[in-house]
Specification:
Blueprint: H1 22-26, E1 28-36, E2 39-48, E3 53-57, E4 77-78, E5 87-92, E6 96-101, E7 106-110, E8 113-119
Antiparallel strand pairs: 1-2, 2-3, 3-4, 5-6, 6-7, 7-8
InterPro entries: RCC1/BLIP-II (IPR009091)
Length: about 120
């Protein structure tokens, strides 16, 4: 199975990440961009080389207050619950999200899930 994903030549081509500085872009090691039937806007999660996780655009975290009426984050937000957890991959669907760590822990969130539920 290929888990390397597609190479992105320029993160500035992703509209919701275009305001990142060159320094911020240089620390990104993984990006997951997603859409949703709940919003016309895209969302993204990204992982940095500093083991931090951020999200931008459409807010996919269910049950969490959002900053704008549209459900779109007004600024990029650090995800403290996933940062410093050695997250290597993140995927987000219409009603769920999952983050896999390097030691095999799976963090799930969405409808009927809580962010800290872990499966090994």
């Amino acid at each position: 199975m290929n888990t390397s994903g597609l190479e992105i030549a320029d993160l500035g081509e992703i509209d919701i990440l275009k305001n990142l500085t060159d320094e911020e872009r240089s620390t990104i090691k993984f990006v997951h961009v997603y859409g949703s039937s709940r919003s016309p806007s895209l969302g993204a999660y990204y992982i940095t080389t500093n083991d931090e996780v951020f999200r931008a655009g459409f807010n996919s975290l269910f049950g969490e207050s959002i900053f704008g009426q549209s459900g779109v984050l007004e600024k990029i937000v650090k995800v403290k619950d996933l940062s410093k957890k050695s997250v290597q991959r993140i995927v987000v669907g219409d009603k769920f999200g999952a983050a896999l760590t390097t030691n095999g822990k799976l963090h799930l969130w969405g409808i009927d899930w809580v962010l800290h539920r872990q499966l090994t």
